[in-house]
Amino acid sequence: MRENQTIVLNGNEISFEPGETVLEVARRSSIDIPTLCHLKGASPTGNCRVCIVEVEGEQNLLPSCDTPASGGMVVHTESAKVVEARKLIIQLMLSSGNHNCAIRGAEGNDWTKFQMGVQAQDQSGELCPAWGDCRLQDLAYRYQVSAEKHLETEVPYPMETVNPFIVRDFSRCIKCGRCVQACNEVQVNNAINFGYQGADVKIVTPGDKPLKDSECVFCGECVQVCPVGALVEKDARYQVRPWETAKVRTTCSYCGVGCQIYLHVKDNKVVAVSGVEDVAPNYGSLCVKGRFGYDFIGSSERLTTPLIKEGGEFREATWDEALDMVAKRFADIKSRHGADSIGVLTSARVTNEENYIANKFTRAVLKTNNIDHCARL
Amino acid sequence: MTNTISCIEKADVILVTGSNTTENHPVLSSYIKRAVTQRGTKLIVIDPRRIKLADFAEYWLRQNLGSDVAWINGMMNVIISEDLYDKEFVANRTEGFEDLKKTVEKYTPEYTQKITGIPVDQLSEAARLYAKAKVSSICYCMGITQHIGGTDNVKSLANLAMLCGHMGKDGSGVNPLRGQNNVQGACDLGGLPNVYTGYQPVADLAVAKRMEEAWGVSGLSTKPGLTVTKMIPKAYEGELKSLYIMGENPMVSDPDLNHAEKSFANLDFLVVQDIFLTETAKLADVVLPSKCFAEKEGTFSNTERRVQRVRKAVEPPGDAKDDWKIMCDISTRMGYAMSYENSSQIMDEIASVTPSYAGINYERIDYEGIHWPCPNTEHPGTPVLHREQFTRGNGLFHAIEYIEPAEQVDNDYPMYLTTGRVLYHYHTGTMTMKSAGLNERSPACFIEISQEDAEKYALNDGAQATVASRRGDIQARVKISDKAVAGTIFIPFHFVEAAANKLTNAALDPISGIAEVKVCAVKLSSAA
Ligand code: SF4
Ligand code: SF4
Ligand code: FES
User: Fold this and answer.
1) A217 pocket-lining for ligand 2 (C-beta < 6 Å)
2) Which comes out higher in pLDDT, residue B445 or A151?
3) What CATH number is attached to the domain comprising B522?
4) Is B520 domain-assigned?
5) Are the beta carbons of A43 and A185 closer than 8 angstroms?
6) Do residues B224 and B204 touch, judged by C-beta distance below 8 A?
7) Which residue of B has its CA nearest to A185?
8) Rounded distance between C-alpha atoms, residue B129 and residue B14, angstroms
9) By three-state DSSP, how is residue B439 classified?
10) From ligand 3's centre to the CA of A89, what distance in Å?
11) Structural domain range at position B127
């Protein structure tokens, strides 16, 4: 029964593999169905309904992320019906909390009051901390949705700021559940889940304790996947805007997994770290050290100049002075006590190229094989 | 690793031993946890502490410290006597089976229990589970290697895997998890006393000759050099006069620190090249400031042998320089001119003298890293090792007897100590302790003990206590934890103020030269 392994997507016939969802088929064919809650690698939840599509013969619009493709399906991803429903969904989300970005709509006369209210709560004079880096905002632009009709919002839960890494701002949570999927299905730390009922829904730890008193290990996977400004790195919140930073891809310098990371740089300072999605070995995941342990880079305790010890105290020296001294003492010790009286400890922290040079220097210049590193320790 | 990290998810059974994976390799541990929760993989954890991963395990076997060869032999005893081994694999791809069989004969589950403390049933069931699965993988870390019998432990794990034919397939193999970001690279690129890059032996005349030609020098030494664990005693004895230490902090990470400090003091000339004025750098005659990873171009090789790019994101502070440039400058001053345009040029030279890296260059690894061995620039790299055959042809079984740890508990020192890391810190803390957030989560050293021991010694959670061994003593607060098992203390080694390595034993594995920092005898008392 191979014949009916195709669906019609916006008029194009496209073949699919058994088990593929409508969303996956669409993405593969460069048809852009918007999503919010969908998280690659985790099971679909159908929470946000932004990805709804019209399937001919079906009465209701179906979430494409959770609808398997089946032979002969005729699907419309941007029909009038879909667009209208999608707009409403976006509008409801946008009006559900402190979404104080420009797109929220500036026509209503309550706008100023709303802004002032949110900014007072946030103790900031700026627009939402996720402004410019928010999937909800992107969607609101794309569908030209604003939320001025619904300006009254009530924020049921206070912000949580008592841990050093993550601000949980429930006023901006759209309850998409991506963080829950990330924590339970990607990192499998099982720290958070949906809690309470109906309009009171909140993402909670068991017992609704703060993250710092829960199973949370501050991997920050939830921050990375949160599409809006509900989960934000504490140090970057209101400090770092995406357009002010450059991203440089590199390899994490902690354990041997070698996670692929982006260093976010502002004014020659690393101000945030994120995981590179879609590449091995980590596919976007990081641990607390990799994501939040970057302060050492710009630490004021970094060594900035060579030091030479004189009479038990260090004094600053020029490179020429220090290098001359090292070269002279090595040569001297080598000629007096033999090459094997010198040892070199290279490092599991420096690059391959540097280890190679250390090996070449030790063997070809010092003429000894006394070289090792501290992996044995 | 013989396999890739993502291979882990393909296994039906994963055996993790001597690795507190969720704290030391958190991202890798997610692969294991996902396999268990989403694919029905069965997990066996064998560890002296009830680590987090045990929550996900079918079996958590608690072995006595340093008894690894015994439980591995015990498992093989069960597997052989119940005829569960892979006869085809053993016949076609291995040698030495009869010797192995003879040796493990006496390690019946009952005999093994006496040594390891692992109940007979648990050992047998875990052995069956591992042997019967189609695809089984073993992951281990420092809990296996940091013993006087560390090399024996590693060989024994290889025995177990070969016996069951769990080698050279997607998802099955024996996987050491590297603790530091570029341990793999340091070993691959000649940072070892007995081999040049790509594990080419220094004692091999043909290799030495090739290197002499490549480097344009003569008289390369063919005598293997000293390991770090031998250099330190040689310094103490006065035979080693000078040390050049790069990016390492042995003054916290070394076993038996009091002895190490005297050894460093005894040197004529100590050069330390680092990004911080570490405890070790403070002892130096000359300190050279280097760049950190975020300021340099280069590559690291991860635990799955994948060579990946490191890229410059920020300018270095002050006059800090690339480690390679500093060494080139010293070399040039000593009469051997070394200079390179950039690190990419160094990689090209590496490729030219290292068969396993021959096909690697920056262009090829720009988007995604490549696994060595990669013999030429058309080669896609080798994610899984030993697929068709082992490096030496057939896999050799090593018949190994259990030996006791170098130090046993006695009346004076009645408890065992084991050491390790915590999630929030890395190694000697020179990097992680610069983050206020990480310090807030893990502010100080602690002495992890079980509830029973807390009662026995009348110590409350948070009480200040002293732990002493034959070599030194430290003080820290007590942390009562259900990870701990009565009679065994755990202390993280990150903290200078209470350096666990003042207590540890520097007894060495005669083959690897690794010190037995995972077991020593101590006594515990209230410090109040
Ligand atoms: S915190 Fe973010 S990821 Fe989690 S449910 Fe709310 S909006 Fe979604
Ligand atoms: S930081 Fe990690 S462990 Fe904590 S809630 Fe987020 S995903 Fe879960
Ligand atoms: S993305 Fe499909 S329901 Fe949210």
Assistant:
1) yes
2) B445
3) 2.40.40.20
4) yes
5) yes
6) no
7) B34
8) 10
9) helix
10) 11
11) 6-177
Band the pLDDT of B76: cuts 50, 70, 90: very high
Quote the pLDDT of residue B44.
Answer: 97
Q: Pick from B177, B202, B229: which residue ends a domain? A: B177
- The ipTM value here is 0.91
Rounded Cα–Cα distance for residues A370 and B304 (Å): 27
Task: Give the number of other CB atoms < 10 A from CB of residue A194.
Answer: 14
Task: Please indicate whether, in this complex, the C-beta atoms of A255 and B306 are within 8 angstroms of each other.
Answer: no
pTM, whole model, 2 decimals? 0.91
Contact B275 A341 (CB under 8 A): no
The beta-carbon neighbor of B313 closest among A248, A258, A287 is A248
Q: A3 CA distance to ligand 3 centroid (A)?
A: 29
Please answer whether residues B474 and B499 qualify as being in contact, where contact means their C-beta atoms are separated by less than 8 angstroms.
yes
The 3 state secondary structure assigned to A190-237 is: CCCEEECCHHHCEEECHHHCCHHHCCCCCCCHHHHHCCCCCEEECCCC
Tokens of B191: 């940072």
- In a domain? residue B98: yes
Residue A41 has a pLDDT of 87
Q: How far apart are CA A114 and CA A117, in angstroms?
A: 5
Task: Give the mean pLDDT of B90-107.
Answer: 94
pLDDT at position A1: 46
Cα of B471 to nearest chain A Cα, Å: 17
Q: How far is A102 from A98, CA to CA, in rounded Å?
A: 12
The answer to the question of residue B482 being in a domain is: yes
Which among A164, A251, A306 is the nearest to B308, CB-wise?
A: A251
CB crowding B155-190: b at 16 or more within 10 Å, else e: bbbbbbbbbbbbbbbbbbbbbbbbbbbbbbbbbbbb
List the Cα angle A25/A282/A130 in 5-degree steps: 75
How far, in Å, CA of B298 to CA of B301, rounded? Answer: 10
pLDDT tens, position by position, A37-59: 999 889 999 999 999 999 999 99
User: Per-residue pLDDT for A121 more than 80?
Assistant: no
> What does R_g of chain B's alpha carbons equal in angstroms?
24
pLDDT digits (tens, 9 = 90+) for A324-362: 999 999 999 999 999 999 999 999 889 999 999 999 999
Token code pair at residue A323? 């290098």
**Greatest CA span in chain B, whole angstroms?**
68
Domain-ending residue, one of B148, B177, B206: B177
How far is B167 from A30, CA to CA, in rounded Å? 41
What contacts B277, CB < 8 A, 6 or more positions away?
A: A301, A303, A307, B287
Report the alpha-carbon angle B376-B382-B385, nearest 5: 130
Q: Across all residues in chain A, what is the average pLDDT?
A: 89
Average pLDDT for B455-474 = 93
Is the confidence at residue A127, as pLDDT, over 80?
no
Q: Which domains, and CATH codes, for chain A?
A: 6-78 (3.10.20.740), 113-233 (3.30.70.20), 242-293 (2.20.25.90), 338-376 (no CATH)
Nearest to A179 by CA among A322, A45, A326, A372: A45
Indicate which atom in ligand 3 lies nearest the CA of residue A46. Answer: 3
B224 in a domain, yes or no?
no
Whether the pLDDT of residue A111 is over 80: the answer is no
Backbone φ, ψ for residue B257 (5° rounding): -60, -35
The whole-number pLDDT of residue A197 equals 87
Please compute the mean of the pLDDT values over residues B309-321 and round it to a whole number: 97
Q: Is A143 on the interface with B (CB under 8 A)?
A: no
Query: Quick one: pLDDT at residue B406?
Result: 86
User: How confident is the model over A272-298, as a mean pLDDT?
Assistant: 94
Interface membership of A339 toward B (CB under 8 Å): yes
CATH number of the domain that B133 lies in? Answer: 3.40.228.10
Query: How many independent structural domains does chain B possess?
Result: 2
Bridge-based pairing state of the strands B42-46 and B488-492: unpaired
